[in-house]
Here is the input.
Amino acid sequence: MEPGDIRNLKVSDVMHDEWPRLSRDATVEDVIKLFASDNISGAPVVEGESLVGIVTEGDLIFRDAEIESPGFLEILGGMIPLGNWNEYREETFKSAAVTAEQVMTREVVTVSPDATLSEAATLMADRRMKILPVTDGDAFRGVLTRMDILTLHILNPKM
Here is the structure.
C-alpha cells in the first residue's frame, strides 16, 4: 500500500462496533435526545443481533417538513391522481411517527466488515450516506461514518 493510501483498509479496521442502537419501540423523542447527546446523525434499529432498520436525521426531519400531496387532473368529470401516492403516504406516516419503528428506513444499505474502505466510501458517496451499517449476513456488527474515513487522512498521513 502506498503511503497515505487508506483505500485498502478493511471496514472492520475502522468501524465502530459499540455504536448506540435503538429498539423498535424507542420514542422519537428518545431518538432525538440520543442523537443530540452522542452527537450522531443516525442509529441502527436492532432486534437481537439482526438489523431491522436505521433512523437518521433525514428520517426525523419529516416531522417538521411540509408535505405536499400529489395533485389531481380532472378530465371529463373524472379525477386522475398525479405523482407518487406511495411516497406521499410514507412521508405522511413518518411525519406523525412516535416510535423508531414508524420512522425508520427498512431497506437499509449495508456493507460487509471485509469490504475495503474504498468500496464503503464509494457506496456512501453514491447513496449520499453519512452513516453506513456494517453487517455480517443478517447480524449487525457496527457502523462506519464519513468522518471515520475523512479523519484517517489526517490521523494516519503516512499509512
Observations:
- The longest strand covers residues 50-56.
- The CA atoms of residues 68 and 93 lie 13 Å apart.
- The two ends are 8 Å apart (CA to CA).
- Residues 11-155 form a domain with the CBS-domain fold (CATH 3.10.580.10).
